[in-house]
Structure formats: C-alpha cells, structure tokens
Amino acid sequence: VSSASRVGRRLRLGRTFVLPFAAMASASRRAARYFAFGGVGLTTAGLGQAAHLRMSYVCPEEPMGKLHGHAGPDLKGPPLRLLFVGDSVCIGVGAKIAGPLQSACAERLAKLRKRPVEWSTVGASGADVRELHELFMARQKSDAASGKCGGFDLAVVFCGVNDSKKLLQGRSPSVFREDLDALCASLRKAAPEGHITVPSIAGYKYAPLLQLWPMRHFVDPFLEAFEAQKEVVAKSKLIYCISPPPDSLPSSDDTRLWSSDGIHPSLEGYNIIGDWLGTALALAHA
Question: At 51, is the pLDDT very low, low, confident or very high (cuts 50, 70, 90)?
Fold first, then answer.
C-alpha cells in the first residue's frame, strides 16, 4: 500500500471519529442552552407566582381567647415561667382558639418535668423581629410599673418569615441576624438565669400553599437563608436553636393539619408542634 493511500485512510478514519464527537459536542451545547432557557423560564414563573401570592394573600382572622395560661395545676413545686415571643404562630392564626401551640407545649412540659407551668405571650400577627423587640420592651416597662419582675425561666422566640417579606426594604438575612441578636440580648438582660430557645422550624417545607410548583423550588432556599441566621445567633449568645424532625411537623398531605389559607397550621397542627416543643424543652433543660 502506498504512502499516499495510508495517509488518506488515516484522514478518513480521523474524520470518522472526529465528526461524531463534533456532533455530540454541538448537541451538548444546544442542550445546555435549552436547559438555561428553561431554568430562566422556571425562575421567572416561580418568582411571578410568589409575587402574586404575596399580593393576593389574605391572612385568616385572629382567633379569640387568652394568650396566657397554666398547665399542671395539680403538680407540686414552684411553677416554671414560660414566655413565648412571636408572630402569628404564637397568636394561633389558623386555629379556632388563641395560643394552641403554647398550651400544648406547656402541658407536655409540665407532664415531663412534673412541675406546674405558667405561660404567657408577647407577640402580634405579622410582626417582624424589630416589632417583637419593641413589644417585649413595652411589656418590661409595664411590668416594672406594676411591680412585677418581668423575668422568665424559659423563653421561646418564633420569628423570621415576616422579616423575609421585607427584603426589598433592606431587611436582608444579615440584618435579620442583627435584629434577632438585639432581641435575645434584651431577653438575657431581663432574665440572666433564664434559658432562651429560638426554634428553627421549616414549616414552609410542608405548608401546602408554599409547595406549589415551581415556586417551591425558590421558597425553600430563600427562607433557609433567614433560618440559618438563628444558628449563628444561638452560637454567639449561648442560646438554644432546635429543629424538629419531619415527623414532628404537620404533614402537607393531611389537610386536617392546615388551616384554609394553606400556610398556617390548624388547631391539630399546632398541637403536634407544641407537643414536640414541650418535649424538646424538657429534655434540653432537665
């Protein structure tokens, strides 16, 4: 075989291998473009969906009832003073009675600690951390004027979602961390020996309305950025940041555990969270 024939065969063989690889590379580039365009489309759709929800959402009316109470009245010993500071979750929005989470938590805590529990609440539906801080300081001032000590043995802070709604007003996760840090500092000053807990409860992962596709793919990482700040504050302030296992939260598949708005728990849902929280507090502060 001549040298020219051998060279020609190598060139033909080269083209035989090069052309499929070139075609594969071209197809990969096209696929990448399609995925990119698809990702942009999903992002736009998800953000639009979230914006529509933000503008059209109507919060259920606040339930009637007291936001303080007692648990374990037949138990002996000085009562544990349990303070809740929080937003609509502490008000009980979505339930038919006020404060169902606190009541369930106090009952479980009293049973496990074998001590009576006196619980009270400082909060407001829709309140962010700054507003909760103002409410707590107002209560401290009122307690001082009436001769009350204003302290607590255990304090639980529920917050974060309402702060995330104000991102466009400059309330970034880092600002949320600073505001939460300031609230915890005031709580610590009011009760130097008290225990402070800031639960990180990813209820947004289970709330039916927030699981709509494709919005759910953006809600989770967005809110997790705020939830992560609770861990940072907990480490710096030596407070507790606890998270429930999934089976301790209302299941998104059980509509009985959620209110009609698809975001807040129902009475049964609050009871599930309260039972978990009471158990966690009893174990953490035994």
Answer: low
